[in-house]
């Protein structure tokens, strides 16, 4: 599906591009009926090396999109022939186009709806030039990045490796696809999964594959900083702003500028600070503690939690408006027990590193592997890493046998999914489908038969889960 879309866009691009324009120059379409505002914006965007087009209505926007697929669409919501939201109806044709809303009518509901429908971001009117520039800097994914990601997807299929992540289970292939889709965009990512499942590594991989890779990736554990200090840790403070503030301090937002800020355990952030974080995400500005001077910021946020985010919202731990702002693109990292076929591969990866460090060639015996594959891994990949380390210490000589594995495996961990009250039927269905597919090693006909659904239904579901889900699941 993606392949066809790309081909189509390069064809129309060739036809619509004037000879002097570089084919690599990204194209931004501004959909705005206020002609003057649109032209001012176009000028700004051209300064950033984009080609621009202006559409004054929905109808014009549709025509222009057919002529030339834009890399980014800046979309006003109130248009003479309808709401900008209607453009999302044609999301299929839009493929990987980034849609950024410009809204003076920033009712929370519209923004939330737009983000749900797939808008990359929204800018509050009046749109500031710096905000537009920062936004453009993040979108407009260069062709090289796409090629790099395609290359990585290839090694993921062949070798079960995607950046620093290891694993070839269907559920991990989905994660790789999602990382590939989102890395080059400006979108805020919410990584959800159990402790030790690999959330931080996923976040780091998104950063490494983004244009921000040369700037810092800063990880902040929101649950580990005292509520009294967290605001100044985040936003910095001026000298003398509180007792003990003996000099000016740069916060995480300043230090991560141009890069990525990983907000781990974001549900543990005090509610007042959640309001402030939301403001920063909406305006791209913040103030140091003890200062009333606005600082501009260009930071991509990746948040993570090992709680169920919907439940955190329901219990009031996580503000609903912040949740929607963070949850623009959610990546679920599956627990290790849902990808037991990857255990050997990941264990081998940890063992290789230890062997290299000590200059030895220890090997996992078949009985040891068997034991590892029959455990339920409550501590996920982190626990596996620790177990491999301990097994190395226990081993006599170069063979690591089952007796070196420091736990008893009472019963075979059945492949199962855990459902808590409050989970939607849709989500349960998703988990069940992915777990079943994994159990039959990605064989779709078999999975459909076990699930009692037609292969076509299965195919459609997989397409919904990840834009290329159907391709990954293919044998
Ligand atoms: N797929 C993977 N391949 C290789 N190593 C992995 C993988 N997933 C996780 N790891 C490693 O396992 C350890 C735990 O991962 P990580 O810190 O990302 O988990 P987490 O989900 O952030 O955990 P927590 O919720 O406790 O913070 C790290 O050492 C990480 O490098
Ligand atoms: Mg972590």
Helix-strand layout with pairing:
Elements: H1 2-16, E1 27-31, H2 35-47, E2 51-55, H3 58-67, E3 72-76, E4 78-79, E5 82-83, H4 91-94, E6 98-103, H5 108-117, E7 121-124, H6 129-138, H7 143-159, E8 161-162, E9 165-166, H8 170-183, E10 189-192, H9 199-208, E11 217-221, H10 227-235, H11 252-255, E12 260-264, H12 271-283, E13 285-287, E14 294-296, E15 300-305, H13 309-314, H14 320-326, E16 329-332, H15 343-358, E17 363-364, H16 366-373, H17 380-394, E18 399-400, H18 425-439, H19 444-451, H20 455-465, H21 469-473
Helix pairs in contact: 7-8, 8-9, 15-17, 18-19, 19-20
Report the CATH topology name of the largest domain: Rossmann fold
**Binned strand content:** 5-15%
**Number of DSSP helices?**
21
Strand order of the largest sheet: 2-1-3-6-7
Mean pLDDT: 83
Unreliable sequence segments: 1-20, 467-475
Tell me what the CATH architecture of the largest domain is. Answer: 3-Layer(aba) Sandwich
Bound molecules: adenosine-5'-triphosphate, magnesium ion
What is the SS-derived class? alpha/beta
Q: What is the β-strand count?
A: 18
**Count of individual domains:** 4
Major sheet, described briefly? 5 strands, parallel
Question: Which range best describes the helical content: under 10%, 10-25%, 25-40%, 40-55%, 55-70% or over 70%?
Answer: 40-55%
The first-level CATH class of the largest domain is given as Alpha Beta
The shape is globular
Computed Rg: 24 Å
Instruction: Give the distance, in angstroms, between the N- and C-terminal Cα atoms.
Output: 17 Å
CATH superfamily of the largest domain: P-loop containing nucleotide triphosphate hydrolases
